[in-house]
Structure formats: structure tokens, C-alpha cells
Amino acid sequence: MSLGVSKLRATAHPIRLRMLSLLTGAAMSAAELARELGISHANASYHLRALAAAGVVEEAGEETIRGGVAKRYRYRRTVEKKTAQEVQEDLEGKYLVWLTVAHELIRRAEKEVWGNSMLCDAELWVEPEVWDRALQLAREASTVLHEHAKPPRTAGTIHVNATMGLFRMASDEAKR
Questions:
Q1: Which domain holds residue 143?
Q2: What does each C-alpha distance from 159 to 36, 40, 74, 114, 149 come to in angstroms?
């Protein structure tokens, strides 16, 4: 199993996916994550250790709380280049992540405030230049949101969701 598969499998769990979303905005401890997610501290610690072991989150310092030391973690946003073989090996893990994202999106949609939102679902044929531009804009939107994310419930913020999945599809002829 490649390292990519272990990272994908580590994130293919609803609680861990939610943790990653929270850790995008701020470094948090297991206790803070437990409170925000409504789970036990032990459960949060377990899932946080799994994410850390897979290299998906990293330590972001420590703080003293009531005589003890709490580690804070943050989401590691890195882009890895993969060989064709590594991409193929990662397909199983990627499928698990897509399933988890689909279930998480349904959970989030239940909290949607209608009005200022956008949904796009399309299977299209476009010129390569158009595709490259769309990817560029999606990456830019993702970067803006991640760079400006705040800790949960920060005064003056709104709770939002951003789920994007842009990928090139194999043509039917290529599958034959």
C-alpha cells in the first residue's frame, strides 16, 4: 500500500473528515475538537492520532491547561507529486474518500441557509484551455477560503461549506 492510500484511508471517516475541516481554520486540541464535534475526548484523541500517523495533520504547539499539557494540531496542506503507479494504487483509497465526502455533504446540506449559495454539477466536454482555467479558479477559491478560515464560532464569521470535485474523465473510447 502506498503512503497515499494510507492518507486517503485515514481521511475516509466522517469524524476525521470533519476534523480536517475544523483544523483548516485553526490549530486545535483533542478536547476542543471533541467539544465542537460532540464526541468524547478519547474518541477525538483516537481519530486525531490516526490522522497524525498518516501525516495528514501536524503538531502546531502545546498549551498548558489546568496543570496538563495539550497538544494542538493543524491540517497539513501539501501538494504531493505522484507517479502513475502511485495514482493507480491510490484509487481504492480515493473511492473511500469520495464516499465519505458524499455522506458529509449530505450532513452539511441539512444545515444549508438558502439564499447566497451555489451548486454546480456537470459532466461536460470543454476545450483544454477552458478546463485549465476552471481548475485555476477552483484552486484560487480553495486557497482564499483556507487562508482566511477562522476558528469555529469566531465572532463576525459565518459557518460555510465548500466542496469541490473537479476531475478529468476518461472518454468511453479510452475505456475500451
A1: 3-175
A2: 13, 23, 19, 13, 10
